[in-house]
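Predict both folds.
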Amino acid sequence: MTDPRGEHIVRAFDAELQELEHTIVRMGGMAEAALETAVEALARRNSTVAAEVVQGDREIDLLEQQISERSIHTLALRQPMASDLREVVAALRISGELERIGDYAANIAKRAMALNQLPPMRPAHSIPRMARLVQSNIKRVLDAYVARDAELAAHVWESDEEIDETYTSLFRETLTYMMEDPRNITPCTHLLFIAKNIERIGDHATNVAELVYYLVKGQRLEGGRPKGDTSSYTVVEPPEGGRGRAATEESPKP
């Protein structure tokens, strides 16, 4: 004989988990849109749109607080075990990753407003392509979360290397422009920060992919995280004939 009270508790718990999932997806969509809008504001040199991204970050922060409070309440009240415990902990940690994505998008928007006061710079044209790669990963990892698709999450995890390589290429190009003309230093510095923010957003999307994989499989992804960022080893060579060139040294051997 089924205990009606037990069924009620299970249904209530399922409803709480579904509400957490829905809020995560909503928050993820807002973070993805914030990145897209911030980069659009940069490309179109639209400070009004950039300011809207900065203001909108507050709503993402509020959702993260709601998820945190609900997750802690569920852990205390339900004391979930096994896969149910992973569901709650994953929601709590994923919300933190998405909140950071929103913060970086707001930072990009702030830099865009500063750049809009300066003459356009050619390296800025490479930013949207890099951002599209990151946006694709955000969307795919959210799809993986909703579908509980560990394979898709692993694909997102692996594709972060392409984003790192794009960042390194942009880093070298921007350094070259800075060496060619000191007047380029200020705008190029803003561009470097923007590119780094986008690269970090990619890292947070990768973190979400790891959490989704663990949520589904109950184990972590094996092997080291693929990395293609060699900007840490980039050095500036002395100008030759009035032009400088950025080079990347070989990574030091362990």
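Second protein follows, with its predicted structure tokens after the sequence.
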Amino acid sequence: MSTTDDPLSWAREYTPVLQSLGDEYDDEEPLAGYTIGLATHMEAVSGCLVETLARAGAEVLFTASEPQSTHGDVVQYLDDQPGITAFVREGMSDAEFDEAQHELLEREPDFLLDDGCELIAKVHDEHPEIAKQILGGGEQTTAGITRAEAMERDGVLEFPVYSVNDTPMKHFFDNVHGTGESALVNVSITTNTVITGQTVVVAGYGYCGRGIARKARGLGAQTVVTEVEPRKALQAHMDGHRVLSMPEAAEIGDIFITSTGTRDVIRREHFEAMQDGAQLANAGHFDVEIDLDGLAEYAESVSEPREGITRYTTPDGRHLNLLADGRLVNLTGPASDGHPAEIIDTTHAMMFVAADDLLTRDHDLGPGLYAIPDRLDRQMAERKLETLDIDTDAVTEKQVAYAEDWRNEGSAF
């Protein structure tokens, strides 16, 4: 097969951690006999995760977590491989996307690996009998963890779920560097405009917002952060960003990027205050952070000056430019490929080990949301360093003793 027939060939070169896991497990196949349902953004790097799960012996059923981020060539290639079945295609409507997820769940998978809590929420809400049979799950996004936490508070979770998003190997790298870099890159590509010298308003200062703001400032932007959580607002201030309320930021921003995990962060009163030519983008999982209905109701006319940009002309003649229909700008824009492969490599590796650990080890965990074991996070960090040929120091016996003895007396120890 030529590389032109294999849409994963380039991604494999930049996912060394996933490839090492596949090489290690394809002989013993520890996941043989299990069916894993996966929902994620179906592009080439996600395809490498599907391959790795299959190499470890699992039957893999995959679908999308967002209908507009699907790469048709990747889906077709994977669907042609033994033990892998697609429940997604490029160009699906929202209704078809929803139906495909239900079709996957009706195949009664043993384990769910999720993005946005799409499958986990649906199986509990609409397929409760199937939910009772599922052995476990893993969730890789902030938005998905928020939903899973709400399910846990309501006492409806039927199986243990590993919070992959909250492990350091995910949020320190994927959220900060993956979202931060890919969001800005795709704003630039979609608009063909410069970020340097612009006022970039970042809504939300979690790990994703932190990465966007940091990298925007590195590109020479004037950065503004809006927040509702006082400690995060203070952190943004101490990191050197200007902290304003959204009504204040709306008046001065050139580029707005939302990354909060909640809805209606930018609303009618903000649209009314924005400058002509303002660009609106979303880096949160769901397309609810910008009030799209309010924007459409406010606008006098709507046009498409460039692929991936919807222009809303206001009654007073200003142009507000919405990117990627308010969906994830780094995954659904006209040239979007998502996060850099090297970053998603470690996130997907954590998803793989979450499934492997819960399915092959007897933890005796009841239903609920659990932190992924630190040993797994550390193992993936060590594996990543090996692929980068980076050495670290080793802890000495004296240092171990010093740390363990609470009576130590400094230099006299």
